[in-house]
Each structure stands twice: as structure tokens, then as C-alpha cells.
Design goal:
Elements (H helix, E strand, L loop, with lengths): L5 H12 L11 H9 L1 H21 L4 H15 L3 H15 L3 H9 L5 H24 L1 H22 L12 H5 L5 H19 L4 H29 L4 H20 L2
Catalytic activity: alpha-ribazole 5'-phosphate + adenosylcob(III)inamide-GDP = adenosylcob(III)alamin 5'-phosphate + GMP + H(+); alpha-ribazole + adenosylcob(III)inamide-GDP = adenosylcob(III)alamin + GMP + H(+)
InterPro entries: CobS
Enzyme class: transferase
């Protein structure tokens, strides 16, 4: 058995969830467990780059809307559109109304159906609109929203990979990570991310702390609702479902953080 390294999970997280030049050295369940626990860290890195892109755009004289577009574009690029593709495929599978086996076959097809297009358009529009409003209120708050939303999106993946959530297929990324995270580890990751988000928002005031915590809670609740529905419809999770969960959590968090 290969010797365990504390960096195996970190490599797995960044190597599978981002385009950062990190080589995944192990694909076994133990590495997958560490990788899904480190998933929020990958989201933090993606969110930081996205926030930087938005701030640079604003500094160059652009308005909040263009800065929001730049911010939303960065995660898509840094993930090769993996989560957006998963969202579209999940929407097509759910929208088809077919039995699980047929729905999973629809999700594996390379084309995007009408439900997928609608889901992508509405999700991206909501993300851009929420970020534009946040940037117009405060550059710093807009950048912070980008960081929090990207981090909580990957936290949703950690929770979805917890023990007891089955894989819908015997192959693919979903099967590789399904059920690998102990419940205690998933809950600890959620507490750490929520606590860090609250601490980071303290610089903006007490209201922002409460709003950030609410954003994390509602984002995870929305992802959990989708996870439960997909598990019932498909018999478990797939890589596409993980992508749909990430985008759902990110969008929910951005909408909440743009309010008030």
C-alpha cells in the first residue's frame, strides 16, 4: 500500500477541482477523502483569484456590472467549466422526467438540452446581478462575496461526499468520492468554513457577520435540498450532481450577500 502523505488530499482537491498545475499522485479512496475535505481550500483559492479579477476591472475604470462578469468568468475558467457543465447536465436529467437509468444516460450525453440551457442562463444571470449589486455597494464587499461564495460552493461538495450518500453509477468522479468523508469530518469542515467566513466579515460590521453566516447556512441548505432530490431521482450522486451542487450553493450565497 502506498505511503500516506498529508499532501495527497490537497493535491487531489486542487488537481481535480481546478486547473492549477497540481499533479494528482493518488486516486484511491483515502486520497479522495482528504481531497474532499480540502475542497473548500480549493474554493478559497478560486474565489481569491475571482475577487482579484473583479477588483482589477473596477480599478481600471469599469463599472460594477463588468466587474461582476469578470468575477463570474474566473471560476468557470479555473474549473474548465466543470461545475457549470454539471449543473446543465443535472438540470437536463431532472427535467427529463425519465426513470433513473434513462435520466443518467441523458446526463452523460455531450449536448445540452433546454433545461440545461435555462439553468445555465438563470444561474449565471443571478450570479452576475448579485455581484454587480455587491460591487456597487462596496468594492470590498463584492470581493468578499466572491471569496465566500466560491469557498462555500466547494464546502457543499465536502458535505455531499459524506458517508451514507451513495453513488448513482459505479464509475466516474462521483463514484470515486461518494461516501468518502466521515460525518464528523464533514461537520467539522462546515463549522470551520462558517467560522472563518464570520470572522472575515467582522471587518464590515456585525450586520455583515450575521448576513455572511446566513449566506453560508442558506447556501448549504439549498445544496442539501438539491442533493436529496438527486439522490431520490437518480439513486445517488454523480460528478454532474456535484457540479450542480457547487453552482447552487455559490448562487445562493451571492444572492444573500447582495441583499441589504
Amino acid at each position: 500500500m502506498p505511503r500516506t502523505s498529508p499532501f495527497d488530499g490537497l493535491r487531489f482537491a486542487f488537481g481535480t477541482l481546478t486547473v492549477f498545475p497540481v499533479r494528482v499522485t493518488r486516486w484511491d479512496r483515502e486520497a479522495a477523502r482528504g481531497g474532499m475535505l480540502w475542497a473548500p481550500a480549493a474554493g478559497l483559492a478560486v474565489g481569491a483569484v475571482a475577487a482579484a479579477a473583479g477588483l482589477v476591472t473596477l480599478f481600471l475604470g469599469a463599472g460594477g456590472l463588468l466587474a461582476a462578469v469578470a468575477t463570474v468568468a474566473v471560476p468557470a475558467v479555473l474549473t474548465r467549466g466543470l461545475h457549470l457543465d454539471g449543473l446543465a447536465d443535472t438540470a437536463d436529467g431532472l427535467g427529463s422526467g425519465k426513470p433513473a437509468e434513462d435520466a443518467l444516460r441523458i446526463m452523460k450525453q455531450s449536448d445540452i438540452g433546454p433545461f440545461g440551457v435555462i439553468a445555465l442562463v438563470l444561474t449565471l444571470f443571478a450570479q452576475v446581478a448579485a455581484l454587480a449589486q455587491a460591487y456597487d455597494a462596496s468594492w470590498a464587499r463584492g470581493a468578499w462575496a466572491a471569496v465566500v461564495s466560491a469557498t462555500v460552493a466547494r464546502l457543499a461538495l465536502t458535505l455531499a461526499a459524506r458517508a451514507g450518500v451513495p453513488a448513482a453509477r459505479p464509475e466516474g468522479l462521483g463514484a470515486a468520492v461518494a461516501g468518502v468523508v466521515p460525518m464528523r469530518g464533514a461537520l467539522l469542515a462546515a463549522v470551520v468554513v462558517a467560522g472563518a467566513a464570520a470572522a472575515g466579515s467582522a471587518a464590515f460590521g456585525r450586520y455583515d457577520v450575521a448576513r455572511t453566516v446566513l449566506a453560508v447556512v442558506l447556501a448549504l441548505a439549498a445544496a442539501e435540498a438539491l442533493l436529496g432530490h438527486c439522490t431520490r431521482r437518480f439513486g445517488g450522486v454523480t460528478g454532474d450532481v456535484f457540479g450542480g451542487l457547487a453552482e447552487t450553493a455559490a448562487t445562493t450565497a451571492l444572492v444573500v450577500l447582495s441583499l441589504g
